[in-house]
Every structure is written in C-alpha cells, then in structure tokens.
Amino acid sequence: MLRRLLTVLAAICTVVGLAVLLPATSAAAAPACAAPWSSGAVYTGGMTASHNGHNWQAKWWTQNETPGTTGQWGVWADQGVCGDGGTDPGNPDPSGFVVSEAQFNQMFPNRNPFYTYAGLVAALKSYPAFATTGGDTVKKQEAAAFLANVSHETGGLYYIVEQNTANYPHYCDATQPYGCPAGQAAYYGRGPIQLSWNFNYKAAGDALGIDLLNNPWRVEREPAIAMATGLWYWNTQKGPGTMTAHNAMVNGAGFGQTIWAINGALECNGGNPAQVQSRVTKYQQFTQILGVPAGANLSC
C-alpha cells in the first residue's frame, strides 16, 4: 500500500512540474480594426467604426459625434483595442506611421494607383524626424499637414505630373554649372509636391543619394522616390517662407506657415485666398480623421 501511495504522489509531482514548466498561454491578438470613423458618415445602432486604436459600436443613430466622447447621449460603446494588440493604441498600423493604411485610403479615395501607401512608408526612412517629433498630437498634425498640402497640389493624389505642358521648357536654369543634361523640357513638376526646375532635381537627388538631374523621370515612375522628393522639400526647404514646413508644425508656428514654405505670396497675404482656404479645409478634414485638433494659425 505504501509503495502504491508513493507511486501516485510521484505521478502528481510530475504533472505539477510539467504545469510549471509549460509556457503561459499567450494573450489573444486584438481584433482587426473596423473602417475608420468618418465625421460625415451616418451610423445606426450596431454599426462599428475604429478610432484612435479602438473599435467602437454605435448604440443608435449618430453623425459627427467623435468616438470616445460621451456627448449628450453617450452613443458610442468602446469595443476595446484593435489592430496591433495595444502596443500603440494611437496607431494600429504595423508600419509605425501615425497614419494607418485605412486612414490613408480614407483621405485619398480617388487617388491614382501610382501613389501607394507602401511607397509613402518606404519614403519615410529618408526623413525619420517627419511625423515622429513631439507628442502624439503634434506627430499627427504634421502628417495631416503634409498630406493636406500634397492633396491640394495633386488633386487628391491624382496627378503625377504637371498638367500644363506649355510650362515644361521653362523649368531649366541653363546658367547652373551642371546645365540641363536631361533636356531643356525635362524638369517639369512631378510627384506629390510637384518638384520642378533642374536645380531642385539636383538638390533633391543629392540629398536622397540618387541621380535625378540626369534621370528626373524616376519621380513619375517610382512611388517611393516620388514621395521622398515631397518629404525632401517638406523637411529641408523653406521656399519663399521663413522656415521649413516641418519646423512650422513641430515648433508650433501653425499650418499657415507650411503654405508660406510651399507657395509664399502667390497664395498668402491675399495672393489667392481661395487656394489657401482649400489647403486649410483639407488639413482640418485630415486632422479630424486622425482624431486631433487642427491647432492655431491655420491661414497665412
């Protein structure tokens, strides 16, 4: 009897030991994020939308009530973290960019297939300070500001090249020591901020480590290069303004200063108020998609 009892105890100890050694069951992955919440959409009871890394379910009819706010009726029910399991609730996209692919698609529903989210994410590596400087709100405001301006410049990321072909021969400054090796009419506007002039192609190419002076066509053929030229201008060039667009957003100068950096007096100080308002409206739409305030000093 004693021998049998010892055998049973040994078996129990073995099982307990195994239980201790077995790894704990990993937590269940967060569910996929629903389509991003849109201020202009109408939601009825049971419909879901994602916002700031959580899924939300509408209890009844609602429009333009931001998920996460109680409002008068507390219409949204929090369904928990979605996307990346909560490692960054403010950004459920695995790319690490503060704008998710779903939000990018929401911002540019009619974009040209040439302008890809993957191309944008690849271009971010050239300027790691972009949309990563400051707090979460500032990061998202800068991303929204850049994307609002490029949306304005390209008709919603639709146009890849400048449409007025009559301008093409004018963008070559032959007095530059390197001249225009790709041809007199080769340096027309391309990409998200419509890079133009031989000296800009030379400077952008040098900064990115590629030869755009001799091969400017890469900007209209390779999505990542196109986006990188836009980020080059945004992060390093002050244009007719007093600061770069990047510095304007991270230092609190406001969205209006990004317009100065891109088009200066052609739009600002009464140059073309309709164009300024177009940029501002788009920026306000994009910050709303990202769930952050637009901030002050929107106009120029």
Secondary structure elements and pairings:
Elements: H1 2-21, E1 42-43, E2 48-51, E3 54-58, E4 62-63, E5 76-81, H2 101-107, H3 117-124, H4 136-154, H5 198-208, H6 218-221, H7 223-236, H8 245-250, H9 255-263, H10 273-290
Antiparallel strand pairs: 1-4, 2-3, 3-5
Helix pairs in contact: 3-7, 4-10, 5-7
Explain this structure to me?
This protein has a domain at 30-90: Carbohydrate-binding module superfamily 5/12 (Seminal Fluid Protein  PDC-109 (Domain B), Ribbon), CATH 2.10.10. Strand 2 and strand 3 form a beta hairpin. 39% of the residues lie in helices and 6% in strands. It has helices spanning 2-21, 101-107, 117-124, 136-154, 198-208, 218-221, 223-236, 245-250, 255-263, 273-290, and strands spanning 42-43, 48-51, 54-58, 62-63, 76-81. The strands form two sheets. Strands 2-3-5 form a three-stranded antiparallel sheet, with no helix packed on it. Strands 1-4 form a two-stranded antiparallel sheet. Helix 5 (198-208) crosses helix 7 (223-236). The protein is mainly alpha-helical and 300 residues long. Disulfide bonds join 172-180, 268-300. Keywords: Disulfide bond, Hydrolase, Plant defense, Signal. Residues 1-29 form the signal peptide.
